[in-house]
Amino acid sequence: MGERVRNTLLAILxxxxxLVVHFQCKIITSWDSKWYLYTAMSIIKQGNTDLDEYAKVLxxxxxxxxRIGSHLYDRYPLGTPIIAVPFVLVVDKVxxxxxxxxxxxxxxxxxxxxxxxxxxxFIACFIVALTAALIYLMARGFLxxxxxxxxxxVFAFCGFAWSTCSRAxxxxxxxxxxxxxxxxxxxxxxxxxxxxxxxxxxxxxxxVTRPTNAISVLLITVFVFIQYRTYFTRFLLWxxxxxxxxxxxxxxxxxxxxxxxxxxxxxxxxxxxxxxxxGGNPRLLEGLIGNLVSPSRGLFMFxxxxxxxxxxxxxxxxxAQFDRLDGCVLGIMILHWILISSYTWWWSGxxxxxxxxxxxxxxxxxxxxxxxxxxxxSTGLRKVILVSIFCCFLTIxxxxxxxxxxxxxxxxxxxxxxxxxxxxxxxxxxHDIQFLRGLExxxxxxxTQNEKKPHS
Length: 456
Known about the structure:
18 helices
């Protein structure tokens, strides 16, 4: 069997395993994404993105819906509903066959219930599984099969791909997919430079999916200009194929180049209808530290295995292998961390862990690859120590994100004993850590917190 065929078969196997396991975990967090499938169906049937035809099932004052002129729209980015369109097309055909009725008519009559949430859940799992397959192929360019599968396992089961991105159509899942595609193209372009032009498509679309990807757009564009100047014009043209329709759509609907969600919120705004304001956090240092190590919102608390990505950076520097792409990726990670830490709601709002760092996971995985390679090549006591720590962190990360995919208790933490958005200091409470909610831990106070009631 040829190596390419073998890699393809293993990638398909990875996709199927991740899809099945993630879909079997029943926790569904369809909150911000509640109307995404409705928007996708509106695109299919009406050729527009408004939610006017669903007025019967829309709730008054829903924070996800905004009125623009005489029309109603989902206020969240359009990229994810667009990605959902081919899935919804298939669901529509299956619905007609299974229930002898049109899925579009069903959505017009029924607010998002179990059937709609399960469809959304499946699409989210499909996106994550596809990303995992691409992660395997990316890792395979540097590592052998077993270690590549290990890298993929870390992505799929030791991070927010499992506990957040496959629980519903959060914008982070499609964002991770697009950034992984972009990163894979850039890596392939090292041997075939002409491929770099196509990285502009997923990169530009990642911004349509989530505005924080502006950092990736900026730094990757600078990288391509410096490293692949011959193909830079083509790179921009491919990116413009996404950017121009996006801006034209915004002008036609919002009378502005960017929708409200992409623009700074009003100073002092506190309602859910207003996005987090960049630079609105007067305690930036708290946000920076909290997003890394706070007990209920720290990245390295929820995924300590990602500390080995830092080790991967050190390995590259030590071996004089740290190149321009590495500097670009590291810069994106640092700037993204600073950006989301400056948000008014730096703690990611109603979430499991530091949700807003989720789309940086492909970049963490990128640096995890040289770390695993270095560990596999080490010898003696050094290898024993590194492998032991790695296995310990791997197990902890797996168990924490397993809870996020299977336990309702950890999500109830967001509102009991007080809504976290109204009392963000709770993310520092070592006696009520989110991923331990529902478990008995006497050394943390001997309570699960489950019996506490929300404040009136």
